[in-house]
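Why do we bother with a discrete structure alphabet at all? Because it lets us treat a fold like text: something you can write down, compare, and reason about line by line. To make this less abstract, here is a complete entry for Thiol-disulfide isomerase or thioredoxin. Read it the way you would read a sentence in a foreign language you are learning: slowly, and without expecting to understand everything at once.
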Amino acid sequence: MKKIISSLIAILCATTTFAQTFSISGKLDGLPEGTTLQLIPAATHQDEKPIATATVKEGSFQLTSTTDFPRQYYISVKDSYGVIPIVINKGDKVSITATAKLNDSQDNKFYSFTDEKITGAPLTEEYNKKMSPRFDLDKLHGDIQQKYAPISAKMSAARASKDSVLASEIAQSEEWIAYEKAEGDFFKKADEVIGKIISDNNDSWWGPLLTLNLYNYFTPQNEHLYDNLSENVKSSYYGQILKEQVRPEGFLNKMAPTIAAKTVAGETLNLQQSLSGKKVVLIDFWASWCAPCRKKIPELKALYEKYKDQGLEIVGISIDKKADDWKKALGEEQLPYPNYLDQGETANNWKVRAIPALFLVDSTGKVIAENVALEEIAKYLK
């Protein structure tokens, strides 16, 4: 019996991992006294909340949390853009020094971090080494953009003024043809570089983590990125996140997920109330900064006016980070249908990966169409 118990204990010890505390301390020159720093999970393709915060005192800070496996995080300044990416393992005691510079535009606060020195995080060093070919691509593309900036500016001006004759002349110029060739060659090289980074790491947890960093969004055509992983990597933390990205389960024929969104006046969205007396509700996830979203608004307005008396309701849900940006867009667009601001969870609950994202919900609260085309709405109103 003792041997059996000892064997069971040995198996449990070998297969069970326990979360351990890690710490990140350091000094970021250039940050005002009292600045709040956040530690946010990275590479999840979701709107994550901070798992730890720290207040800068005399330029110094300390963040602590726990993990039971390697994870990537972002260190950021609260209510600002710009991050320091870091890969942490359990038990790490990390030290960081850097210089923070605020680039404060009218719309957004953005911190750039330079002179970074990170010690005590060997996985961060390994991450940077694995991603270095990707970082080299950024410099290469920047050089191309700088070289051809004059001809690019001329083409942009011609298109903005809708001068098709001038745009055609520019498009036939040697400089523009050279620019397009340079861009084409660059993206071909980028595909090769990114493909090699991924294929070189398919047999470890690095594979899905790097893939999640290398792609801004995924489509069904990217399923091979998950399929090519080794079986044990597929079941890893980042492997499962990648699977959800390339093969999202979706909500078709399921009850609508939870919504947490409010109007300008602070009223909470109640989907059942929106459905009251209606056949369907079209939910539009959008944002003030999303050009395709803004471009679709005239179509949504026309659709609403045409079918609002035939059982259609439209509900807009903005994923803007700043309420003022959303309110400004509402004033500019003068939307005739109800609009709400996501309170931080709704887009995640609905697995919104890109916007605009359109969902159609029937009178029972069931999702009957995802990413529905506007011209198909009429058939659901019969």
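What the structure line is telling us, in plain words: Confidence is low (pLDDT under 50) at residues 1-15. The domain at 21-120 is CATH 2.60.40 (Immunoglobulin-like).
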